[in-house]
Specification:
Layout: H1 2-26, E1 32-33, E2 36-37, H2 65-85, E3 96-106, E4 111-119, E5 128-136, E6 143-150, H3 154-157, E7 167-169, E8 175-177, H4 189-194, E9 198-203, H5 219-222, H6 238-253, E10 259-269, H7 271-282, E11 288-292, H8 310-314, H9 341-346, E12 353-358, H10 366-382, E13 405-410, H11 420-431
Parallel strand pairs: 6-9, 6-10, 10-11, 11-12, 12-13
Antiparallel strand pairs: 1-2, 3-4, 4-5, 5-9, 7-8
Keywords: Hydrolase, Serine esterase, Signal
InterPro entries: AB_hydrolase_fold (IPR029058), GCE-like_dom (IPR054579)
Signal peptide: 1-24
Length: 432
């Protein structure tokens, strides 16, 4: 009994110290954003009840994979389409591919470089994206591939002078040449091809610009109904547009005999973490997803009022354009939304999903992402797959939760850092 009491005291002391440390880290952070309060205090998160991911809208319980695949999964996809990300058009009949770099040796002969332009419309002067692909030079069969949707133009994403000059969007709504030099989107091509894994990238701005009013320049504008300037309440925001573009990339991969289209993974960071999570949920052709620091609107629970919330995301001065207009309806009452992040996470089941975050990325709520994985785990268990297996968060840097539904938290803040790439490769080798 005495030992039990001592253990309880130790746990209490550790908990108090951890809470004090977190308070010290967050007390100087801004208390408002876009005019809305920001909470970083666990005691002020508020009460919430998550919708049961395994209960159909008619109240019946899902107890087998057939019911999940044929009933519950379609229900959730429809809800996310209508209430969060927006409905997307299907594959365009007039889409074409131009493989203008058919396989050039790169990285000291260790990789084969391919470059492809995907034309979304018959008019090849607009609405197109460039895919940059590197495959292992010594591959004797179709290679698995990781596609990274990037904030950087392809020519900035790698140290390879043979890559076509990229263009990016300026804040003034103009496409300008991407400046040469290092950027946040650099890819470690050599490490991937050395492990027999191909790696590809696409600049997200090729699909849809990332600013208010970008709809007039991007693919969404092409699909606007005559006489309208904005999508309908349940139609796509920019995240769904980027996701749509990733599905068009998969359309190309299925035609390339050097790529194993059954083993293609996705990775994206921040708003592009939201994008790859939604893409994996919506397009089951993608085998595996790594969603990095996806936060609010991604893997972090919206009902958990911590860091960024729906009100911040849907404010018209900020990121309203990234979501279906219907998402704004829940800005004043997070609990009224019919969906939450654990449902989005569960839509990847039974395919591998790694939620990667950072222990000081308070704005994106790393605990909220972990709790979403815990709440989604019953769906993975339905398929005989493993999730976190505990409700105790791992410490930063621990690779103890690289399960089919995995969670990894680096020591640091928002974004992908160099130490994350070896973890990604280990996860890909395990499941891809």
């Amino acid at each position: 009994m005495k030992l039990f009491s001592i253990n309880k005291l130790v746990i209490l002391v550790v908990s108090i110290l951890a809470s004090s440390f977190l308070y010290a880290q967050t007390e100087n952070l801004p208390k408002t954003s876009a005019g809305f309060p920001v909470n970083y205090n666990e005691d002020s998160v508020g009460n919430y009840t998550l919708p049961d991911v395994l209960t159909l809208q008619n109240g019946n319980k899902v107890t087998d994979t057939k019911t999940w695949n044929e009933k519950r999964r379609p229900e959730l996809i429809k809800l996310f389409e209508e209430q969060q990300f927006g409905k997307m058009p299907s594959r365009p009949a007039e889409m074409t591919f131009n493989v203008f770099d058919k396989g050039t040796p790169a990285f000291n002969g260790k990789a084969i470089r391919k470059q492809v332009t995907v034309y979304f419309t018959k008019d090849t002067t607009q609405h197109k994206m460039d895919l940059l692909i590197y495959l292992p030079a010594n591959a004797n069969k179709p290679a698995p591939l990781l596609l990274v949707i990037n904030f950087a133009a392809n020519s900035n994403a790698v140290d390879d002078p043979g890559v076509k000059q990229g263009y990016i969007w300026s804040r003034e709504g103009q496409k300008i040449p991407a400046a040469q030099g290092r950027s946040m989107g650099k890819l470690d091509v050599a490490s991937f091809v050395a492990e027999g894994i191909g790696i590809a990238t696409v600049y997200y701005g090729d699909i849809e610009p990332d600013f208010k009013g970008g709809i007039q320049f991007g693919i969404r504008g092409h699909y606007l109904k005559p006489g309208t300037t904005q999508p309908a309440p349940d139609e796509w925001g920019a995240i769904s547009a980027w996701s749509w573009g990733l599905s068009r990339a998969m359309d190309y991969f299925e035609t390339d005999k050097q790529i194993d289209a059954k083993r293609v993974a996705l990775q994206g960071t921040s708003r592009l973490g939201k994008t790859v999570l939604w893409t994996g949920a919506h397009d089951p052709r993608y085998k595996l997803v790594i969603a990095s620091c996806s936060g609010e609107g991604g893997a972090a629970l919206s009902r958990r009022n911590y860091g960024e919330n729906i009100a911040h995301m849907t404010d018209t001065s900020r990121y309203y354009y990234q979501f279906a207009p219907n998402r704004h309806n829940y800005a004043t009452d997070f609990n009224s939304a019919p969906v939450d992040a654990h449902m989005l996470v569960a839509l990847m089941a039974p395919r591998p999903l790694l939620l990667q975050t950072g222990d000081t990325d308070y704005w994106s709520d790393p605990k909220g992402e972990f709790l979403a994985a815990v709440a989604a785990e019953p769906v993975y268990k339905l398929f005989g797959k493993k999730g976190p297996g505990t409700d105790v968060m791992p410490k930063a840097g621990e690779q103890t939760m690289l399960n089919t539904l995995g969670y990894y938290m680096h020591a640091g803040g928002h974004g992908t850092i160099p130490s994350d790439w070896p973890v990604y490769i280990a996860y890909l080798k395990k499941y891809l």
